[in-house]
Amino acid sequence: MEEDNIKIDQQEIPSILYFNTYNPEQLTHTQWQQDISKHTAKYNELSNNEILSHDEFQSLIDNNYRFWVKVVNKNPYYHKDSYLIELFLSYINKQITFYIERNTYKQISINN
């Protein structure tokens, strides 16, 4: 029975979440260049982290970064209280892999 609860719980968690899905084609050339620079700098800042904290995740949303998150593993071997995710920033062709606390992901997925 407990196994069924886990399956139900995992199905309720969205596998992919999108944030700040504005259309970059509506930006001026200067705004577009600034947006690319902003996203590139954030990628460089985050790329060496192993864990994405709630505050860092919320900061991405609040500061209007355009990104999406994909859950790779809902039951990782390490960091049992977390999900393993891939975060994709707009304009960057590489994902960043993080652990994020389950409660943070659930809370943000509900608010998204």
Task: Kindly describe this structure.
It is built from four helices and four strands. A four-stranded antiparallel sheet has the order 1-2-3-4. The two termini are 30 Å apart. The protein is globular and about 45 Å long. It has 112 residues and is an alpha+beta fold. It has one domain. The longest helix is centred in the middle third of the chain and has 18 residues, at 29-46.
Write the SSE topology.
Elements: H1 2-12, E1 16-19, H2 29-46, H3 54-62, E2 67-73, E3 82-89, E4 96-101, H4 102-111
Antiparallel strand pairs: 1-2, 2-3, 3-4
Could you provide a short overview of the structure?
The protein has helices at 2-12, 29-46, 54-62, 102-111, and strands at 16-19, 67-73, 82-89, 96-101. It is an alpha+beta fold and 112 residues long.
C-alpha Rg (nearest Å): 15 Å
Approximately what portion of the residues adopt beta-strand conformation?
15-25%
Number of strands: 4
The proportion of residues forming helix, as a percent range, comes to 40-55%
Please outline the major beta sheet. Answer: 4 strands, antiparallel
| Mean pLDDT over all positions | 87
How many helices does DSSP assign? 4
- What is the chain-wise order of helices and strands? HEHHEEEH
Strand order of the largest sheet: 1-2-3-4
Residue windows where pLDDT falls under 50 for at least 5 positions: 1-10
Shape annotation: globular
Q: Structural class from helices and strands? A: alpha+beta
Give the termini separation. 30 Å
Task: Give the tally of structural domains.
Answer: 1
